[in-house]
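Quick start: read one record
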Amino acid sequence: MKILVLLNARAGTLNTGAVENPDAIVREAFEAAGHSADVRLVEPQEMDEGLDEALRSDVEAVVVGGGDGTFSRALAKLSGSGKAIGLLPLGTMNLMGRDMYADTDDFAGMAKALAEGEVVPIDLARINGKPFHTLCGLGYFSRVAREREKSRFDFPGGRLLSVLVSVWKSVTKSGYVRANITAGGERRNVRAYAVLVTSNRIGDDWRRARLDEGILEIHIMRHAHFVGRAKAGLELLSRRWREGDTIETLAAERIEVRSPRSRFWLAVDGELVREPTPLVFEIAHAALPVLMPNRSTPGTEA
């Protein structure tokens, strides 16, 4: 297979210098698996140019190395092109990467697993027609993204610290989300602390066992007082949140969120965006070809 690999040189794992010669490691892994791979280290501002070039070229697959935001950019550019998309998770949160790989700490192991993987179709979720790969959050979740944007430059080089500070500020500042939610045949008028929509079902550990189930889930946290938030937090930590009464979950192929507000700030796969209402979430079953890693590759088992 002819593959273009674009590694974000400023992604967390590479920016720390923890991996030496990452492009050589990836190139050797793909060549050993019989692929023709053009591997490039690119600056963040060059990523879009590389994706545009890939769109015009005859490559069969495009692999991006970076965080959830980098994969989102590839998704926005390449979905619908027929080209397969692959991911080497190198960011802070790695939401998509955690669901694709058994281990996201071994760079060489991930490169080998991906090179020995195969193209499979997974579901493609959309918010107001725009693709997303894992989740979209309102209320508390969008506040975290907003606070993270504000504190990003207060802690240079400390991305994890920036996330923790943004989470703490969000707990103390988040208000209510007022909305009318329609999910399948269910309707809810809510005054919620947080609302989260996920592509496919998530487990108690917030990981997805499948990426091709053809379903969306919406999770509604109604309690906005501190005791309710603390209870929800304990249920999440104990992985018993589906059994509790602080978070209500509905599943559907299409979800609509209406509100008196004309726009909402949203955290879409960790990135802050603003979308007009109503918010329409849809999922297309097996619509996205993805180069999935071989989870049975030696050294990558869970």
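The CA atoms of residues 42 and 175 lie 40 Å apart.
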